[in-house]
Amino acid sequence: MQIIKTVKELRSVVKSAKKEGKTVGFVPTMGFLHDGHMSLVDYAKKDNDFVVVSIFVNPTQFGENEDLDAYPRDVEGDTRKLENRDVDVLFFPSVEEMYPHGYSTYVNVEGEMTGVLCGSSRPGHFKGVATIVTKLFNMVSPDNAYFGQKDAQQVSVIERMVRDLNMDLNIIPCPIFREEDGLAMSSRNTYLSEQERKDALVLSQSLFEAKNRIEQGERISKKIIDGIVDKIKTIDYAIIDYVEIVDALTLNKIETLEGEILIALAVKVGKPRLIDNMRLEV
Ligand code: PAF
User: Which has the least CB within 10 A, 23, 147, 149, 245?
Assistant: First the structure.
């Protein structure tokens, strides 16, 4: 595996691979890789001849009071994991390489899609994500790029951006990867104490209960949301940021459940703010 830190070198290596007729798969990450990330790498390896993984903790997607400095990092461990998976390139640029002095260009997906769910409690977050993902796409020029469905809103925003800006690649959303007991994998799970880790299970449990109720015929969005909120409130210190049911494609709120729906939630369980979701065809 080549570890590359500059855009110039990355471009030249990808160019050579493409010259040989290889297809390029790309998995953008912020590092501290867990099995969820590795499942994205596995999808990319399966579909492509040449796989690039990036590790970059992107400052522009963190708000002022968020955990940029404390965000967990383990480049040595990550490198080992990627080498074991036979990844071709690890792109690991510095902040200066990505945002040189005088940097002033941003990509913003406007409207509803970035104003709801995580967008309303993390203003500017998706502008940072859209900007860095555009830059990475321009650097790697992948045929296929892989994103976890745990960040469902991020996937929708990126799909919209790719469509609106006529970017020439496929976005491949990949299923949420859960721990055996159901907790969605996240780098932020490492912030959980032992007790919080147990209590955090209410998030996935409430979603699976909601799924059952919908399968049994419930179609009123508010009733499902109330059920989820009641379940989460059994953990008295959990702070709900949002529990919403939206149309999976437009992210508009819906009152009656039909079509492709997304049940999404964000909850602070102790220090970390965790997100989870479930996409269903009703
Ligand atoms: O999902 C993430 O880890 C990040 O938002 C991404 C897509 C790597 C952009 O920084």
Answer: 23
